[in-house]
Design brief:
globular; 29% strand; 10 helices; 12-stranded mixed beta sheet
């Protein structure tokens, strides 16, 4: 049975004309798991006018309020721009936890301002929509443009529903970057992919060379943007070229939808440089981190 806050959140979502992908209840169910997310609701004359969703979980036995997996940021769900005071009120209404780590989409040109919530800046990489897709490609660096031209007749791109192959490509990418595969990876990605199919707002594209699949990208979209959710590739220069070609294909699809293309952020310098080679512009958003009790000790080592 839904709590009153979740009922209000669903009611609010159904009233929004152009909601962001990451605010959709089905997205939150897929990324957090059933019963693992909730929302803080702001009321005006007993009517819900704004909501802020969050993932309520535990990390190493410690209570945690965090951004859902595979989710770049959370943002207030509302029909109009949410003031700083209302946002602070909703943040203050979130449950207390040992670990508080929430990324928050900026409200237009405004950043969260409140001494109770210290903010760090993170960055996404975004290609704005242009009526002429060739104007977008002119922003690619010269080496990338040359690489894509050479790749167009080398690799075959197909839309796929084979999430298992994509998962193996993602594991390969993590290994190449000497990074640990996230614990949620094998569970959340298939759930999200199924949700994208059901809601007709996502694609999985794979690239192959001589009938061998060597790269894949998963994208999703809403009325505002097309989002690069995840990518994976085999080892070697051919797979890297195929990955770049897939992203160029995804950018073309975003252009056809008349949306911007959001590469999302990365703390890995090599990945950030790769995104910027497409001419993407860094766009800031807020990260709020607070630790209480044993959470402070956990933060020292993480």
């Amino acid at each position: 049975m839904r709590s009153s806050s979740l009922k209000a959140y669903h009611q609010l979502f159904d009233s929004i004309d152009k909601p962001f992908l990451y605010t959709a209840p089905w997205w939150l169910e897929a990324t957090c798991g059933n019963g693992k997310w909730n929302a803080c609701i702001h009321y005006d004359q007993e009517k819900p006018v704004a909501g802020l969703a969050f993932h309520q979980t535990s990390i190493r036995g410690l209570s945690a309020i965090i951004t859902p997996p595979l989710t770049q940021w959370v943002t207030p769900l509302a029909n109009r721009e949410v003031s700083n005071s209302i946002l602070v009120t909703m943040l203050s209404g979130l449950p207390q936890a040992s670990i508080f780590d929430l990324t928050l989409k900026s409200m237009g040109d405004h950043r969260l301002q409140d001494d109770r919530f210290p903010v760090n800046s993170k960055y996404s990489y975004v290609l704005p929509y242009s009526e002429d897709v060739e104007l977008i490609r002119q922003g690619y660096n010269e080496g990338l443009r040359r690489n894509i031209r050479q790749s167009e007749n080398t690799y075959a791109i197909t839309e796929s529903e084979d999430i298992s192959i994509f998962l193996s490509l993602c594991r390969s990418s993590y290994a190449q970057q000497k990074m640990k595969v996230p614990a949620w990876h094998e569970v959340v990605l298939p759930r999200v992919f199924n949700g994208l199919k059901i809601n007709h707002c996502g694609n999985l594209f794979l690239a192959s060379f001589q009938d061998k699949i060597i790269a894949g990208v998963l994208t999703a979209w809403d009325e505002h943007a097309t989002y690069y959710l995840a990518g994976g590739r085999a080892e070697g220069d051919q797979a890297a070229s195929a990955h770049a070609l897939l992203l160029d294909h995804a950018i073309t699809m975003a252009h056809q939808r008349k949306t911007s293309f959001d590469f999302e952020g990365s703390m890995h310098p090599g990945i950030a440089n790769f995104f910027q080679s497409f001419g993407a512009t860094p766009i800031p958003y807020d990260q709020i981190r607070q630790y209480r009790g044993l959470g402070k000790f956990w933060a020292i080592f993480h």
